[in-house]
Amino acid sequence: MSKFQEDMIFKNISEEEIQILLEIVGKESENVNIWTKELRQIDPTTYKPDLIIELDDQNLIIEFQSTEVDDDFSRRAHVYVAITDQKKENDKEVNLEVISTAEQSKQINYKVNKYNTFTYDIIGFEEYDGEKIIKHVEKKIEDEKEVSSEESIYLSLVPLMDKNKNHNIEKQIKQVVDMLVESNKNNSSENTLSLGIMWLLVDKYVKTPELRTLLIDLLGDRMSAIYEYGERKEKKGK
Q1: What is the pLDDT of residues 91-130, one digit of tens each?
Q2: Fewer beta carbons under 10 A from the terminal one: N or C of the chain?
Q3: pLDDT tens per residue, range 121-172
Q4: How, if at all, do strands 93-100 and 117-123 pair?
Q5: Domain boundaries along the sequence of the chain
């Protein structure tokens, strides 16, 4: 993912959108501040957290995971937390939540040494029906109705909801990207967070070069428009 893409991916997310994501991971906060971009550039080869949000009482790292958690992931996640704690400009603790397509909700306790255990939660989607979400949004698109921010965000997470071993995550990401682009034609405003989530999913999970290029182009058109709209708002002092 290029620096330009990183710069704009979460630039103009609304407070409402972030609150919807926090609801999914079971967190509450009156104030939120996304600050992933600056930290992603520390060392992209070893340190590339998906999303970091400063909340009222903590700094929250959110990771998307498509395979079952193992010790290698726990070690890497522990590094994410340690570097975030070192680089933070506040006195809040740092926590990690993993949104997983491969596992049900549970808590992981990884033993760092005999004195310390690294603990984090996995948020599974066992309570969600991705196919039902897709059909609901498809009907709204067909009827040319506006898709709400909440519906858009849940749609963007559908590729992480199917735990079928034959699940083709690349194919489903393509389906969701197409639906988000189509739904935005009937929306009065862009659903920025859902597009940002799709950037992350494409970056992490789409390995087929031709499909990756196609999806980046589709999302790039939308994100560039959002970026330019945000720039105009900032210049007007809004």
Answers
A1: 999 999 998 877 888 999 999 999 999 999 998 887 888 8
A2: C
A3: 998 887 888 889 999 999 999 998 989 888 998 999 898 886 555 678 899 9
A4: parallel
A5: 3-235
HEC-encoded secondary structure of the chain: CCHHHHHHCCCCCCHHHHHHHHHHCCCCCCCCEECHHHHHCCCCCCCCCCEEEECCCEEEEEEEECCCCCHHHHHHHHHHHHHHHHHCCCCCEEEEEEEECCCCCEEEEEECCCCCEEEEEEECCCCCCHHHHHHHHHHHHHCCCCCCHHHHHHHHCHHHCCCCCCCCHHHHHHHHHHHHHHHHHHCCCCCHHHHHHHHHHHHHHCCCHHHHHHHHHHHHHHHHHHHHHHHHHHHCCC
Q: Which amino acid is at 173?
A: I
